[in-house]
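Entry type: protein chain
Record version: 2
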Amino acid sequence: MNIDLIKRIDIREEVPIKSFSIAAFICKKENGIGNYLILKRCSKYLENSWQMVSGRLEKGETAWEAALREIKEETGIIPDRLYSANRIESFYEVNQNCINLVPVFIGFIDHDVEVKLSNFEQDDYKWVTVENMSDYLVFSNQIELIQYFEENFIQNSPNEFLRVQFEKNDI
């Protein structure tokens, strides 16, 4: 590369790219239709919006371990199966001046379970389908993720290479 060209490049302040949180959807398949658990946030972050399970990684934790921990903390559920969704949410986080890359997971429930919300993060939950999800979810990427799940995890068998192996006793 021409050294004169390098000298003319104006170095500017950067917006860092970080990955410090996860997103996890919980699904139960009934009659060939995915039912997705969404939670109404009562905490200050995204207050009064319907969201999937989400949270930050703790020191020494992998993303999938954080997903399982957050699912259990926010819903009282331990999924029967967990998959990497093979998708990343990305958005600009204003308060931290960074682009946040969020690995997405999908956990499956194979039997009826009782949802036990955490007392300080959510105050309601609903099971939604692809048909009524847009009545609750306000972010287009979340709607697109559920549509992706329907095609790749409900209508078709999920790719087993994406399956996370874990022991329920370890959670």
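Comment: The domain at 15-170 is CATH 3.90.79.10 (Nucleoside Triphosphate Pyrophosphohydrolase).
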